[in-house]
Amino acid sequence: MEVSKDETKKTAAVTITVMAVCNQLDLTAFTGDLIVAQEDFESIQVTGVAADCGVLTLQGIDPFTIGCTDETEVVLTLTPSADDANQGTLIADPQDYNCLEGTPLTVEANGTYNITDGVLTIDYATVPGEGEESISGTVSITMGTVDNTDTDGDGVKDSEDEAPMDPCLPAQQAGYALFDNVNDIWGAGDCDGDGLTNLDESLDGTDPYNSDTDGDGVADNTDENATDPCLPVQSEGYTGYDVENTLWSASDCDGDGINNGVEVTDGTDPYVIDGEGCTSEIDTSVWNGRLDLEEDFEGDLILTEANGVAGCGTLTLVGDFLSFGCESSSAPSVILVLTASSEGATDGTVVAERSSYDCLTDTNDEFEASGTYDETTATIILDYTVYSEGEESFSGTYSVKPQQ
After folding, report:
1. 34 phi and psi, to 5 degrees?
2. Which of the residues 37, 122, 291, 382 has the least number of beta carbons within 10 Å of its own beta carbon?
3. 380 contacts 352 by C-beta, under 8 angstroms
4. Domains identified in the chain and CATH numbers
5. 245: burial class by Cβ within 10 Å (0-12, 13-18, 19+)?
């Protein structure tokens, strides 16, 4: 049977398959436990999961050390250089980085990899929304596990501690708060040499790194109230105080409405009433001493502490109640101004003007708040906002009460 050329054209078919070029890389050096390091940040642990075509996924709480609390992941694509597959470039296209509940983030990155050296170097940045600023940085990722062992509980890892079994070395300044108060070695120490153990001081609200917590010139172990700068009562002309101590300076030991620190600066006696004295009827002494600050954060109760220093219609909160991990030698202090709702009332409003929260070196953090107070329930409700480098950083609400 003869078949014409035209009939052949009608019945013939050709299938063409185009295969995509895929970079098959041996990513064993980046699979499993990885350490993420960034300058001025604690190293963190993540997991590397390799896939075909040079795809590597980083999984963990915060692969880019942005400050996350939830598990997330970042997908990287590695592309080898023309002459050496063991090194090349990497990229992370814009992708979700939702590691903070209620705060959607998008991140992108680029960098380099070196399989021989086992190093990923990544420049990352968040993609800012309208009115937001980008968070950026550079991380170095290598294989291994993070060793955060701190045998003596002083807040310094053994690998960086000059004396891993001595909780008082390296020596720390007054106000240091990065210790582990449930560590037996740290608890048994006496880092300020005042005869009280670190654990006892932590439980009593005194400073384990300052033998005179309230700066009144009386050592904690003999002070009738080691967190009240005005007890024991002192006589006119007394000068044994420490004017650099935030607690003492913020107090008003003669009750004349002028803080001790201001009186020293003005050349008046902080133990002698000047002028008419205090005319406020508000009993801020309700909150004098150790205070609990409670905050409901997405259903979880967060508890921090501060020392309350009662003044004339004012209350000064002294301490790192924002839990920044202060580095400065003096604790931050915030002044609350109380105004009664009416004459003789035991409730009213509270205002903290925007002021410095002096805590971390090389940062500019500020705090402001407003709210209400009630003397009968000994409760202050504070709606606060924290600013970092002039921009609003976060906000919340504290319930402030005396410790029981």
Report:
1. -130, 150
2. 37
3. no
4. 28-143 (2.40.128.30), 284-402 (2.40.128)
5. buried
Name the one residue in this structure whose structure tokens are 């205090």: 278
* pLDDT reported for residue 393: 87
126 residue type, one letter: T
Q: Which residues of the chain have pLDDT under 50?
A: 1, 3, 8, 11, 18-19
Structure tokens of 270? 């902080």
Q: How far apart are CA 74 and CA 96, in angstroms?
A: 8
Answer yes or no: are the C-beta atoms of 95 and 74 closer than 8 Å.
yes
- How far CA 259 is from CA of 11, 186, 311, in Å, comes to 101, 35, 7
d(CA 208, CA 176): 8
Rounded CA gap, 190 and 206, in Å? 12
Q: Please, how many CA atoms are within 13 Å of residue 56, restricted to the half-sphere of its CB?
A: 30
Phi-psi region of 233 (alpha: psi -120 to 50; beta: other; left: phi over 0): beta
| Chain center to CA of 187 | 23
